[in-house]
Amino acid sequence: MAGYRLHSAIKVCIFSILLTIIMVQNAYSFEKDTIKTSAGDLIISFIGHGTLMFKFNNLVIHVDPTTREADYSTLPKADLVLITHEHGDHLDINALEQIIDSKSQVILTEKCMENVENLDNTVVLHNGDQTEAFGIIVKAIPAYNILNKRSDGNPYHPKGQGNGYVVSFGNTNVYIAGDTENTPEMKALKNIHVAFLSMNLPYTMTPEMVADAARAFQPGILYPYHYGNTDTSELIALLKENKNIEIRIRNMK
User: The domain 31-247 belongs to what CATH superfamily?
Assistant: First the structure.
């Protein structure tokens, strides 16, 4: 009987170990792309909605981490966190608490700081500001609505409150637009190699707006993200004649 109980305990232990391995593997099952830069490979994990994770050499960078998109207890600690604005699908205190430690740096907006208390190592960037973190240059680009407004007439994202970010990895510039429309500041960007452009109404852009912006600043690779139920094939059709832009569709609903 003792031998039977021991055998059963071993089977339970093995099952628990296998279940843990499967859970960990599932936690890391996001789509990934690798971008070659002059300073090393940039590995992009497409977590979902407006949420991304970058690995660059030995650095981990989380963008708008939220627990509705991932179990952050299973993801690596952040060296750097970028938060575009204060809405709950972009700023999630629970997610932050799970990925930051004493060495982490958090770049965010002034409006975000109103919702974050007792958070160390924060850097507030206003539109147009620039900073350096872990050898990476981060510049804040205005992110706001021009046409899309709430029922009270106010924009979903007022000018001056939200950031997009241009992040430079070696000679490769990555633009993460945040929640915005095709603003003049976006269309004036130069030398953008990879762009993440939000595409869902009524909060951000239509496929036509994304195409308009892409034609203006000509990113080498365009990832629509934060697109909900928007038909991404519409964007592909709109830009089919523009051979300089590679559109990549990843699971970012």
Answer: Ribonuclease Z/Hydroxyacylglutathione hydrolase-like (3.60.15.10)
